[in-house]
TrEMBL record:
GO terms for molecular function: beta-lactamase activity. It comes from Sphingobacterium gobiense. The keyword Hydrolase applies. Keywords: Hydrolase. It holds the Pfam family Beta-lactamase2. The keyword Membrane does not apply. This is beta-lactamase.
């Protein structure tokens, strides 16, 4: 009961804080100029917490999550940990029948290899491992349980579609998951501020999110010494990133979500990936004028 009351109160608080936020018109003009020729659909939400300023461009539009869905899956797993139904130290045996393909390392494990939940969560977030992500979704109670949790957190548009009863039709449209730029920033913020599940478990979740193998887009446009937490997601027509930045002048978070992209290439000069890098660099130099960081090509 206390758990449900905590979520309700926090959801109400988030709504009130969001209402008080002020739009940063200058920054919005800069970002609108950057995206005007993009061949696809773009949604952006930016929030600077100390300044209480935001930019919202199609921020409440639904986008496919691609692998960004692994953030709500993470919260679903930790909800089960809070309820005493899972432990990070729990042992699991990998079965080669779980091979899924795509990104990740566990598909290369030997059949019957022993692992644990902590390793699975780490692989899911750091290497965007698909095998462990599907496994974690199962352990979290499946898509339906995760979706109910998102509703309780005040995120009605953030949903898991794949392998979720009653969501076949919407899965065909959005794929594994769906969210909006505003909601995925809110979810990352809840984790950062210790308000997703409990402070202790939120802290642990955030530590996992700080380790990102895929650092060639938004993260490449930030100074290497700056602490961040992030998650990327990519499909042929979709390239996404959510980032929480611990900047000298104050923390800020942003999400860039795309869909219906004309450029479906898998090269560093993909139009959407270039756009994400540019937006990240614009935000850093806008919020940190005294610590300008020159945009550069991250490919070595």
């Amino acid at each position: 009961m206390k758990h449900g009351l905590f979520i309700f109160v926090f959801s109400f608080t988030i709504a009130m804080v969001s209402y008080a936020q002020k739009s940063d018109a200058k920054l919005e003009r800069m970002l609108q100029k950057e995206i005007k020729d993009f061949q696809g659909d773009v949604g952006i939400f930016v929030q600077h917490f100390k300044k209480n300023k935001t930019v919202a461009i199609h921020a409440d539009t639904l986008f496919p999550t691609a692998s960004v869905v692994k953030v709500p899956i993470l919260v679903g797993v930790f909800d089960k940990i809070e309820r005493g139904q899972l432990k990070l130290s729990d042992a699991h045996i990998y079965d080669a029948d779980r091979i899924y393909g795509g990104s990740g390392l566990m598909q290369f494990y030997k059949d019957s290899s022993k692992t644990n939940l902590s390793t699975m969560v780490s692989l899911m977030l750091t290497y965007s491992d698909n095998v462990t992500s599907i496994w974690c979704q199962e352990l979290a109670g499946g898509g339906t349980a995760i979706n109910q949790l998102m509703d309780k957190l005040g995120l009605p548009n953030t949903k898991v579609n794949s392998r979720t009863a009653g969501r076949q039709e919407i899965w065909e449209k959005y794929g594994w998951g769906q969210t909006t730029p505003r909601e995925i920033v809110q979810l990352m913020t809840m984790i950062r501020e210790g308000k997703a599940i409990t402070p202790r478990l939120s802290d642990k979740m955030y530590r996992y999110l700080k380790n990102q193998y895929y650092n060639g887009e938004a993260l490449s446009q930030l100074p290497a010494h700056i602490a961040t937490a992030s998650k990327t997601g990519a499909l042929n027509q979709t390239r996404n990133e959510i980032v929480f930045v611990h900047a000298p002048s104050g923390d800020y978070a942003f999400a860039v979500l795309t869909k219906n992209n004309n450029d479906q290439s898998w090269t560093p000069d993909n139009e959407a990936e270039v756009l994400i890098r540019k937006i990240s660099n614009i935000l850093w130099n806008y919020f940190e004028p005294r610590e300008q960081f020159k945009a550069y090509d991250p490919v070595l």
